Structure formats: C-alpha cells, structure tokens
C-alpha cells in the first residue's frame, strides 16, 4: 500500500465512526456495589477479542468474519485494517484472538489466531503475526508461525486464545474440532495447549519435544474447546478454561505433560442427553481433575484477572464471560482457591465473548452478536 493510500486510510480511522460518544451510564446491583456499564461502540459483527494499544491509541478488535479494526477511546471505529489473512468464516470459525507482542514498543508485532481452510475444505486454527503500520492502517509482512495439524474442523471447536508468559513463550489454547478422541492423541494438535516461541520455534524443554510420534509443540492435552486463557498475576501460572459438552465447563491450571481428561473424564453429557461414548467417569486415573467445574455449563469465553488499582473491591477477582448464561462471572480468589462466585449483568441479556482489563482499570467486554458491542464496566463511587 502506498504512503498516500495509507494517509487516506488513516483519515478514515478518524472519520469512520458509528459511536461518537459513550452512551449514558447504566447501573446494576452487585455484592460489591453498583456496577456501571457504558457502551463504547456498537454494530460490530460477532466481535471476538480485543487488545489495547499503548499511548492511548485505542483497541484492536477482531470481528469473526475476518475484519480487524481499531476502536478509539471515545468509540471511533476504523475501517478494516489491511494485511489481515483470509479466514475460514464458517460456523464458529473466522478471525479469533489478538495479542500484542510483549515487545510491541520496539517491534510493533500483532499476533492473530484464526480458522484457516485446508485443501479438503476442513479447517484448523492458525496463528500468525504482522507489523502494525505506524499510521495504524494495516499489518505489514504478515507471517504464519503455527498451524494446527491435521485440519479436521467443519466449523466448530477452534479454541484459540493466545497468551505470552514472562519467560518468552507463547501459549496457544486449542479446541479438538469436535473430534473427541484426537484430544488424547499426541500425534495431533487437536485438544491441546501448545507452547512455542514467538517466532514459531519449539522450546527444547517442552514435555514431548523428544518423544517419537508426538507433536513437540504440546504442553498439555485432553482439552475440549479452550476459549479462555490468562496468566495469574499473583502466582505467574497460566490458567485456562474450556467448554464442556452439556455440563462440565471447567477451569484448569495446566502443567507440563499432563492429561486433562477429555473425553475420558468429564462432568458433562452429549447435547442430546446421552453419555459421552468415550467417557469413563468424572475422574479417571492418569488424568488431572479440573481446578474448578460447573456442572451446568455457563458457556464460558474470555478470562481476565483483576489486578488494577482503580477498583480495590475487585482485587484478586477473576472475570469470565458467559455466552449461554449471558452474564459476567466474577470469581473471588483466595490464592488459587475459588472462594466465591457471582453472576453479573444478566439484565443485559448479552452473550459475553471476551473480557479484558483496560489500562484505565475498567473492564472491557465484547458481546457476541451480529450487532455486537464493546462495553466499559466499572464500579460506582456512589451508593
């Protein structure tokens, strides 16, 4: 793209706008005070994830059909950015997670996960990175660093959260493409948590790096459809969560080389009411029990630990979006122990897809619909 074309596009970042100012504040009661909700932006088509740009440059937001946009702090919505890869936009597939490089201030790299089609029409999760242009018009030199192999999805269970740890690794939380047995098969990347370096190389100390006929990228296995992942800021451990079938959504703290059970061990049943064919019980020898489980599935997506100073009442809380329950789940933590749970914002009637803590200390939520919203959530200082 020419510099002139980029200048024209960056002008559109300012002019293209569907929400010029925040809507009025809505208030909802909670155990910790009145929760405030403001609509930052609307009319987003199935938004999936967001990431905050530094220096008040706004937020990168993915839309599942394949668009990456920038939303400014006052709700200005950009035109789609250039340089985004073609995606498999079918069923649950499309453009999914977005993360900034830990060294974004120097390298300006943006990481995207997305569903990518194979030659036979089936798809898998792919991760790549590109350099955000100085004028914010697009991603330059986008390069694939990881592909889920083999490609087995016809449109569901891509998983797809991205997390960087403090040791220079990138974790990719994957789904099993609704091919249940593959979550136990180490020669496939379905139903796995993967650990690689940011350039796609595999660390030598991965648990299966030296195991013949196992994928060296694997960190843990036996997962179903992981749509939440975050580093616990107080322990430094990675937490993930995943959808169960009908019942059995769960949180895990994945450890190297461990088997988290699916589909051998599950608290859920098939959507039609029948048992999972491979299931041997809620707990199975040789597999790890979930750190926390919901017998009735809220349909969890997105995960954010609250360690900001703005709302002390939320310190040591974990927030998770709920698609089926249409709520924001607040979990009170005592160390790693989950000491309490509250369901917030059910009055909105919105499927909450992603949850992030903003640099201003507010929570930012994405709602999953054909006219999805970006919401700013806090606590009121007034009773």
From TrEMBL:
InterPro entries named in the record: 6-blade_b-propeller_TolB-like, Glc/Sorbosone_DH, Quinoprot_gluc/sorb_DH_b-prop
Keywords associated with the record: Signal
Secretion signal, residue range per the UniProt entry: 1-23
Keyword Signal: yes
PROSITE patterns named among the record's database cross-references: PROKAR_LIPOPROTEIN (PS51257)
Keyword check for Signal: yes
Listed Gene3D superfamilies: TolB, C-terminal domain
Residue span, Glucose/Sorbosone dehydrogenase domain: 44-376
Protein known as: PQQ-dependent sugar dehydrogenase
Organism per entry: Stutzerimonas stutzeri (Pseudomonas stutzeri)
């Amino acid at each position: 793209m020419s510099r002139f074309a980029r200048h024209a596009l960056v002008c559109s970042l300012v002019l293209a706008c569907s929400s010029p100012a925040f809507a009025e504040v809505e208030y909802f009661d909670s155990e910790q005070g009145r929760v405030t909700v403001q609509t930052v932006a609307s009319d987003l088509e199935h938004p999936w994830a967001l990431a905050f740009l530094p220096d008040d440059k706004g937020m990168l937001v993915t839309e599942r059909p394949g668009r990456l946009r920038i939303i400014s702090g006052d709700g200005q919505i950009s035109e789609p950015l250039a340089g985004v890869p073609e995606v498999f936009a079918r069923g649950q597939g499309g453009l999914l997670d977005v993360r900034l490089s830990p060294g974004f201030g120097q390298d300006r790299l943006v990481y995207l996960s997305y569903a990518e089609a194979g030659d036979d029409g089936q798809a898998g999760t792919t991760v790549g990175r590109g350099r955000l242009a100085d004028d914010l018009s697009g991603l330059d030199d986008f390069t694939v660093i990881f592909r889920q192999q083999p490609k087995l999805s016809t449109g569901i269970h891509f998983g797809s959260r991205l997390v960087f740890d403090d040791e220079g690794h990138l974790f990719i939380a994957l789904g099993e493409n609704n091919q249940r047995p593959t979550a136990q098969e180490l020669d496939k990347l379905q139903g796995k948590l993967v650990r690689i370096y940011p350039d796609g190389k595999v660390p030598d100390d991965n648990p299966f790096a030296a195991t013949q006929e196992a994928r060296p990228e694997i960190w843990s296995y036996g997962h179903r459809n992981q749509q939440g992942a975050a580093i616990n800021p107080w322990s430094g451990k990675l937490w993930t969560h995943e959808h169960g079938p009908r019942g059995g959504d769960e949180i895990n703290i994945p450890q190297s080389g461990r088997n988290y059970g699916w589909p051998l061990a599950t608290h859920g049943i098939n959507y039609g009411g029948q048992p999972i064919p491979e299931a041997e019980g809620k707990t199975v020898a040789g597999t790890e029990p979930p750190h926390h489980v919901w017998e009735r599935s809220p349909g969890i997506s997105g995960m954010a630990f609250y360690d900001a100073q703005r709302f002390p009442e939320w310190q040591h809380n974990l927030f998770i979006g709920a698609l089926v329950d249409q709520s924001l789940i607040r979990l009170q933590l005592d160390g790693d122990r989950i000491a309490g749970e509250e369901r917030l914002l059910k009055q909105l009637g919105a499927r909450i897809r992603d949850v992030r803590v903003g640099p201003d200390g507010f929570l930012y939520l994405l709602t999953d619909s054909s006219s999805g919203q970006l919401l700013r959530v806090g606590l009121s200082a007034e009773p």
